Amino acid sequence: MSLRYLLGRVAGMLGTLVGVAVVVFVVLRALPGDTITAKLGTQAATLTADQRAALRHFYGLDSSPVTQFFRWFGGLLHGDLGVSMDTGVPVTHLIGDALPVTLELAVLAMVIAVPVGVLFGMLAASRPGAVRDLSVQGVGLLGLAVPEFVVATVTVAWLASAFAYTPSAGTYVSIGDSFGGNLRQMLYPALVLAIGLAATVMRTTRSAYLEAAGSDFVRTARGKGVTEARVRFRHILHNAGIPIVTMVGIQFGYLLGGTLVVEQVFALPGLGRLLLDGILHQDYAIVQGVTLLVAAAFVVVNFGVDVVYRLLDPRTRSEGRRA
Amino acid sequence: MTRIPARRWGIGAAILALGAGAVACSPSPTNGGKTGESAQLVVARTADVDVLDPARATAFATNQTLALVYDRLVQVDANGKLVPGLATKWTVGDGGRSLTFTLRDGVKFHNGQTFTSADAKASLDRIIDPKTASVARSYLANVSAVDAPDPRTLKLNLTRPDASLLTALSYTGTSILSAKDIKAGTVDKKPDGTGPYSWKSWKQGQELDLAANTHYWNGKPKNAGVQFRVIPDEASIVSGMKAGSFSLGIVSDPALTKQLSTNKKMKLVANPTLDYHVLQLNGRRGPLKDKKVRQAIACAVNRKDAIDTVYFGQAKETGPIVSPAYQFDANAGLGCTAGDTAGAKAMLAKAGYAKGFHLKTIVMTGQYSTSTNLAQVLQSQLGKIGVTLDLDRQQTNVYVPNWSKANFDAAVALNGGSTDPYLQYNRYFTSDGSLKVPAGLADPKLDSLLRKANGTTDEATREQVFGDLSKQLNDDSPWVWLFRNQTYYLESTGLTGFTATPSDSLENLRVAGLA
């Protein structure tokens, strides 16, 4: 990977983020209503003109959108994402509290889903059309089809009636405070997330594995007398790796912004809830900050996936040299 | 294709199964099993507090919580009657143009400082100051000056008699703060009141802890404190109650509570609140300009059927007046029986609309669970007399501006009520009301009745005027009144002494304990 390639990528990433910042800012202001109508509902109509002016000043809505944008963007360059309109708490603090929760959920779900998905994908591909293939695919389809909120709600209800246990009974415990306490709250939401993920990974693995298994080099390897296990993992799975890694990367990016449903049902104070509350209250700084962070995560994950490609498949490395 | 022995794949499945079973957990009883006065009550609800300054509080959860930390000059009991708060008594003088309060002696703020009239004056002056951007300011619109002649006396000078001012002074928005905190600018940082509970800690979006104020003037709370847990999903609150994790759960979706009443771990209490469901008509548009047409619509609506569908048969029907302190016949003045489809159809034909018409109807979504259900019931009921509701479902931020500008023929609405009918309607039906546009109709008779009610503090006169107001509203039929909104309290079986109130206040938690 040449330096020039790297610089080009970084510049592209920054450009994307500036674009996202502008789009989010504009879209938020284009939405009907503002934080005052969001907070007061129909009561907002009872405000007199000077009450309304006082509130607009209080929430910093009385300056022009252009001024607001540059004030926010200037802060952004200093790593300042602004403050929540409601509480005056800096958005960086709010994200600092919420990000670890979501990140842990995403990682935990991945740790569960990837091995399961890959192993079952290989199982299904080992005899296409056989009972094992059909049943794995059937279960996988079910895992994809049943919405997360249903699985999550049923899980919470089942834990309550079977074990008299509520994962959200106590306040969120970070992994640093108590490993066991943290796992008790996080395992079930992570499992719920892992179901859909594992199904996706399984399907990708199955098709990629089947494609690689039909290649000439596999026949050659078998002909050379390579052991069956080595053929499967070293030759087939390794070559089926690129689509799997791509899928896992994309899914991880989605997870950072997409754990909302599970966070709601399990009452976990993650990024998804922060974003949703921000949207419901039209708390601009929060929505802008979180969206930017999720976009940044996507960009970085994509970059990471590209790097892994290069490690997995020497052929893709040449592209960098040509540049 | 190679064969892979199936048993090897069992390992993966076994790992998954282990993961699911690994977190075997013992039941976690509420408050670590403590009972009596050392018990902490755990309350689960969907929303969190959003601001800490009572003068700027609008969100329901915020009002509910800050009312436990702060006191008001007067308070409202479960029957909607005014009772002493920080003021022990009050007298009306100068022909209704002044209100003098005698303040309670020996009350201390949580910070230890003694409460005096200076605190009360500073609190009310702060609400009146436009810079505070207080939503409660409109309640004090008739207050010209606040005087504190001595530490135990507070005098409000009024520009005109204002009988509802006392009720307004019982709202969380008009809480009494410490003058010292106001001066130091710490009001929105750390709540510091004279109420039954003091502020302990707050983890935004998750948990809020209040500690019992053992020096509370109205007796020390019968529990050690209250913890609020934010559980955004109502189904999860129900599950938590089944597991015995909370002492009290507050939910609003009737569908969730349908099968709960027989559960051993909890008791379900359906609480009719002061908020009411209503179909607002825009009397300034098309066929609705005709009073007979509006009355026909009101007559065609069958409240009981609507309650059966929306609330599974359990909700309180209401006419114009929702206050438990003033109860009148819901249909008096209407001139027909509600739910009489044939009669309504005949009325419509007489008015010249035998063929019916369409109404652009706005419905708010995302704010409360029953709106769409109710809109569909009304659609089918009014369809029978040829009035077609064209439903337009809108998110809060779209609905609010449309509603405010009366950009609708009809609006399915959930409006906030009050124990004082004047406060319920003055915004809509007085000539200078702030909501006279969305009200959809102005009638000088309504305006004069409302002014008459607020101009006297004589209870007998007020009751009679409110009765006339109820009749006049039915006669005008600007809206179709349906039923009161309902909150559901899931009480754990150990919870004792808690009673819900129509204002959904949790002030009774003070006398609740765990057995």
From TrEMBL, chain A:
<feature type="transmembrane region" description="Helical">
    <location>
        <begin position="240"/>
        <end position="266"/>
    </location>
</feature>
<keyword id="KW-1003">Cell membrane</keyword>
<dbReference type="GO" id="GO:0071916">
    <property type="term" value="F:dipeptide transmembrane transporter activity"/>
</dbReference>
<dbReference type="InterPro" id="IPR000515">
    <property type="entry name" value="MetI-like"/>
</dbReference>
<comment type="similarity">
    <text>Belongs to the binding-protein-dependent transport system permease family.</text>
</comment>
<feature type="transmembrane region" description="Helical">
    <location>
        <begin position="286"/>
        <end position="312"/>
    </location>
</feature>
<dbReference type="GO" id="GO:0005886">
    <property type="term" value="C:plasma membrane"/>
</dbReference>
<keyword id="KW-1133">Transmembrane helix</keyword>
<dbReference type="Pfam" id="PF19300">
    <property type="entry name" value="BPD_transp_1_N"/>
</dbReference>
<feature type="transmembrane region" description="Helical">
    <location>
        <begin position="138"/>
        <end position="165"/>
    </location>
</feature>
<protein>
    <submittedName>
        <fullName>ABC transporter permease</fullName>
    </submittedName>
</protein>
<dbReference type="InterPro" id="IPR045621">
    <property type="entry name" value="BPD_transp_1_N"/>
</dbReference>
<keyword id="KW-0472">Membrane</keyword>
<dbReference type="Pfam" id="PF00528">
    <property type="entry name" value="BPD_transp_1"/>
</dbReference>
<feature type="domain" description="ABC transmembrane type-1">
    <location>
        <begin position="99"/>
        <end position="309"/>
    </location>
</feature>
<feature type="transmembrane region" description="Helical">
    <location>
        <begin position="105"/>
        <end position="126"/>
    </location>
</feature>
<dbReference type="InterPro" id="IPR035906">
    <property type="entry name" value="MetI-like_sf"/>
</dbReference>
<feature type="transmembrane region" description="Helical">
    <location>
        <begin position="185"/>
        <end position="202"/>
    </location>
</feature>
<feature type="transmembrane region" description="Helical">
    <location>
        <begin position="12"/>
        <end position="31"/>
    </location>
</feature>
<keyword id="KW-0813">Transport</keyword>
<keyword id="KW-0812">Transmembrane</keyword>
From TrEMBL, chain B:
<dbReference type="GO" id="GO:0042597">
    <property type="term" value="C:periplasmic space"/>
</dbReference>
<dbReference type="Pfam" id="PF00496">
    <property type="entry name" value="SBP_bac_5"/>
</dbReference>
<feature type="signal peptide">
    <location>
        <begin position="1"/>
        <end position="24"/>
    </location>
</feature>
<comment type="similarity">
    <text>Belongs to the bacterial solute-binding protein 5 family.</text>
</comment>
<dbReference type="GO" id="GO:0043190">
    <property type="term" value="C:ATP-binding cassette (ABC) transporter complex"/>
</dbReference>
<dbReference type="InterPro" id="IPR030678">
    <property type="entry name" value="Peptide/Ni-bd"/>
</dbReference>
<dbReference type="InterPro" id="IPR000914">
    <property type="entry name" value="SBP_5_dom"/>
</dbReference>
<feature type="domain" description="Solute-binding protein family 5">
    <location>
        <begin position="81"/>
        <end position="433"/>
    </location>
</feature>
<dbReference type="InterPro" id="IPR023765">
    <property type="entry name" value="SBP_5_CS"/>
</dbReference>
<protein>
    <submittedName>
        <fullName>ABC transporter substrate-binding protein</fullName>
    </submittedName>
</protein>
<keyword id="KW-0732">Signal</keyword>
<dbReference type="GO" id="GO:1904680">
    <property type="term" value="F:peptide transmembrane transporter activity"/>
</dbReference>
<dbReference type="InterPro" id="IPR039424">
    <property type="entry name" value="SBP_5"/>
</dbReference>
<dbReference type="GO" id="GO:0015833">
    <property type="term" value="P:peptide transport"/>
</dbReference>
